[in-house]
Write a structure and sequence with these properties.
By secondary structure, this protein is of the alpha+beta class. The chain contains nine helices and ten strands.
């Protein structure tokens, strides 16, 4: 079995059909060389100052950079990609009133890295969510070529339908090989993991994951991209990150500095949706939390 490739003109229905069968698909040649250059330029300073992982899961020759919505304007464009968002909406909303940005990370696998432990991303929520509910739709944007030799993501197509304890045979493991500028889409239930890098080149990908609005995000977007930064982003991106309601009253906000009760009856959208800071309640700390993005 191999991972199917489609072009950027693929319909949502075609993508959903492949995802239902395999839990993974690659869309080829989505990004331009100009976009790739911008992303590389924006990420390089952070990657240069980031330490490698310290265990078998995070890898000893792999660097990870999170808070991409705060750090990379071009990654914000990827997060709002119309096709990916339409697909996320169709895939996740049967069990949710909406979806949100769940995780952002740039992952750079250097030569000498070993294979990552195979896993399912839905494990971050333990065993609390029934398997019939899909918890994630994830994207990996290839900023460099992804090859089996340089650490292309290992994937076990169809494993989202397996019994929980079934282990893949070596012949069932595929690799998400793709040209730079392509995007690999996969679900939270499929078995996967970073590949070993036995080449002489680095493999860089941008990981943007989406999840239902009623689940806690793996990356805390409100600390990774706090209000004093988020106020300058587009309303669409802020809403995607969770600066909006996730349901009728899910994610409402109360201003702790509102001494006169002027905001108690105001809707969440008016309270923090436009970030005009009319009541002076935006005064977050200047420093972002340290990166804890550790998934492949």
């Amino acid at each position: 079995m191999t991972i199917k490739h489609v072009n950027s003109n693929a319909s949502i229905e075609e993508l959903l059909e492949i995802i239902d069968q395999d839990a993974g698909v690659i869309i080829d040649n989505v990004l331009s060389q100009s976009q790739l250059n911008k992303i590389t330029e924006e990420l390089n300073p952070f990657l240069a100052n980031t330490k490698e992982g310290q265990d078998d899961f995070t890898g000893f020759n792999t660097r990870r950079v999170g808070a991409l919505m705060a750090r990379s304007p071009e990654c914000r464009v990827l997060a709002l990609d119309p096709l990916i968002n339409d697909l996320s909406k169709r895939f996740l909303e049967p069990h949710s009133d909406g979806y949100q940005l769940h995780f952002t990370s740039a992952i750079d696998i250097a030569p000498g890295e070993s294979e990552q432990i195979l896993h399912r991303d839905r494990g971050v929520w333990g065993g609390y969510i029934p398997r019939k509910i899909e918890t994630q739709l994830s994207t990996v944007w290839a900023i460099t070529d992804f090859k089996k030799e340089n650490g292309a993501t290992q994937v076990v197509p169809g494993s989202h339908k397996w019994d929980r304890n079934r282990k893949p045979l070596e012949k069932e493991i595929c690799f998400a090989e793709m040209k730079k500028g392509s995007v690999f889409i996969y679900t939270g239930s499929v078995i996967h993991g970073g590949g070993a890098n036995i080449s002489g080149e680095n493999r860089l990908g941008v990981f943007l994951h989406y999840a239902p609005t009623w689940l806690r995000q793996e990356e805390n977007q409100y600390l990774s991209c706090p209000p004093h930064i988020a106020k300058d982003l587009t309303p669409e991106l802020r809403a995607l990150m969770g600066y909006s309601k996730g349901g009728y009253v899910l994610g409402f906000y109360s201003d702790p500095e509102d001494k006169n009760g002027e905001l108690e009856s105001v809707s969440p959208e008016k309270m923090f949706g436009d970030f005009r800071d009319k009541y002076g309640f935006i005064n977050s700390a200047d420093k972002l939390v340290s990166d804890s993005s550790n998934r492949e």
